[in-house]
Amino acid sequence: MRCDKSIFKAYDIRGVSGVSLTEDIFAAIGAVLARVYIAQGQTRVAVACDGRLSSPAYKEALIRGLVTAPVTVEDIGAVASPVAYYRSLQTTEGNALVITASHNPKDYNGLKVMVKGLPFYGDDLKQLGEDVEALDALPSQVLGRVEVDNNAERQYLEALFSDIACERPIRVAFDCGNGITGQIARRIFEKIGAKATGLYETVDGRFPNHEADPSKAPNLADLIKTVCEGDFEIGIAFDGDGDRIGVVTKAGHIIHPDRLLMLFAKDCLSREKGAKIVYDIKCSRRLTEVIEKAGGIPFMSPTGHSFIQKAVIEEKAPLGGEMSGHIFFNDARAFGFDDGMYAAARLLEIVSRCPDASAELEGLPDAVNTPEIQIAAPDAHARVAAIQEKARFKGNPIVRTIDGIRLDFEDGFALCRASNTTPVLVLRLEGDDRVSLLRIARIFSEGLEPFSPGITQILEEKLCL
Prior knowledge:
35% helix, Alpha-D-Glucose-1,6-Bisphosphate, Chain A, domain 3, single chain, seven-stranded mixed sheet, globular, 3 domains, TATA-Binding Protein, six-stranded antiparallel sheet, alpha/beta
């Protein structure tokens, strides 16, 4: 079957609805994945979708493909990705398929694949693309069956939030961005005892107010305005399928995920001294300091929620997360998958013990850092490989190459990596103060310039060197 193999990304499947993604493609993917599950000794899979306009039809097509093999499909309807993950751990041995494009714009859709409780990614997804293309036609026989169950949200709500309670009725504004979390977020906040007011709770796949992507500051503008002008202590935003979180304070400051991990790490390590805390290579070095001070062991991972989840499970870490907002709780109270809604509840539980929630968040260690700087590079991976092998840098930094190249100095760090989803170089720099940041930027650009001409000028413009 002809297909655009670019839809098979590093961590999941993504494409434009009606262009690179069609019902026929989803049916073919379903047929191939059914055989992947059977080869793993699995015969049950939970299937769900988000609130995008194309998602219901794609879900039916995916199921049509799945049942061409002897597989039992649990159709749990339109629910947030974490709801599907939880349900799959209870009834399908961790096998789940969720039709969603997460935080992407409205014209996109995609598929997240879980096999036996772990993400299906990397080379496995590439092979899936090869197998879909090699499929001559969808098998005509129906060997599987479908079970419809509408209780997944209720079960998730009871299982994950019954032991979370705010010490006081903390006042929170939340923004669902018209994503699928709009049908459950309010019930979560009410269950844990928060006093919550919602924005854009109506599930609408057109995303008429803003993209459901809390990692981009413009998408938090309405939430910041609401929190600053209203009687709220904190603001929380979710992405389109509920597995990522964004947080703002009363003063309108964005608390980035690596700083949230500091708060969560201290809480988890108060009960599990000596445990590992997993975080991605983009995170602040301040996080490392907080983990060590709290009695934990820092564990740095390549960027990508699939890598983080794998490390969390393998290292038996009670917590993991990355700068994009995926937070994984894996302590005695949780189940090890990324869940923005669960992270929000745990956050409110912690800060409700404080008289001033925003002050607690703003008091977390911080540094002077850049946002992600993206530089177009069709040969990004080859360029990074050359940098890893041949680049030399002054200042005697600690060099890490688990994902691109990261230089750690006593007063900051610099990172250059190839994006796994788009053809760009991604840079991020941090310093204890602006003087440190500028010095590190000069050292970094000097070392990178032979491999990426013009990068010095780009950094000079971004940082006003």
